[in-house]
Amino acid sequence: MYQILNTLYIMTTNAYAHLENNTLRIDIEREKRLQVPLHHLGAVVCFGNIMISPALMHRCADDGINFVLLDSNGRFKARLESAVSGNILLRQAQYRKAADEQFALAIARAVIAGKLRNCRQVLLRGAREASDEDDQRELSSAAKYLAIAIRNLPGTDTLDRVRGI
User: Fold this and answer.
1) Does the pLDDT value for residue 3 go beyond 80?
2) Most CB within 10 Å of its CB: which of 32, 69, 73, 96?
């Protein structure tokens, strides 16, 4: 089962993030404000002047929890990541598939078809909810144009033609 991990954003100036047992604890002015189990975190983003204990950084690196350091305006300063891991055979297969033009064309068609269908549904909903008849006509006309584009999509033979739809 895949578990969605959370990103913790620390934005309070002079906050102190440190390791306490298997949790990340945040103190502000020596008072506990937050305590989060490490296994719930996928990343920690720190804005401005945030103090981080070395023990916490080491543990997060060991557990694969990334740290991102930003200045008080949100500009990127640094990133702490654990060692890259992964299945090299899977990565090689992904590169081979990316180089396969027919596969790329099929994926592009599927993505564009999904986007066109979603746009068409938004237009049709807007036409149903519009109070003005001219607006209804214009939205319905645009939805018909998208339906034609969806029908023409399987006949495209190049990525550029798919992009042109």
Assistant:
1) no
2) 69
